[in-house]
Amino acid sequence: MLSKQAIRQTMRMQLREVTPVACAALVAKLKHVAVSWHPNQAVALYGGLRGEPDLLTDFLPWLIQSGHRAVLFAIEHDQLIPKQISSSADLIRSANGVFVPALNCPSLQITDLDIILVPGLAFNPHTGDRLGRGGGYYDRLLAHPACQARRIALAHEFQLISEIPHEPHDQRVHEILTGSATYTPLG
Questions:
Q1: Which candidate in 27, 101, 150, 187 could, as Cys together with 72 as Cys, close a disulfide (CB 3.0–4.6 Å)?
Q2: Residue 76 and residue 67: Cα distance in Å, rounded?
Q3: pLDDT digit string (tens) for 118-147?
């Protein structure tokens, strides 16, 4: 089995080659799935890094127009803090390149979250194991006892691998969407 470091290095190289068309296919798949969500869901988004689907340009306005609440995470003391956003005007780019909510956005409780779109570099479609970028932010959030949200990952097919090193603190996702398939490893 490859180490986490080796998998991260390989995935980062491959993500540099991802086209906007491939990313748009993931957003289209997400919209297709999202039409069946219950109304007024609090949905946590992410965005800003190369190779990731652009959830903020196309999906964010669609989500709000569909009657859901959009959430983005602020980072405070190594913790992700959910904040509600109403448009892309509420976003600022952080020092590490990801978008975060502006300071004046209202905070939410972890228990308010219904769905968390979880970023990652690699995913196991059979177990839901996920390999993040190495900061542990999402693992800490998802491990919080109050976090009962459905965890959905968007992934390019090459990001699906059968063996990801799993440590006790690593958190899994409930669903993985690719441009052509949906995996529900944890039901």
A1: 101
A2: 28
A3: 999 999 999 999 999 888 899 999 999 999
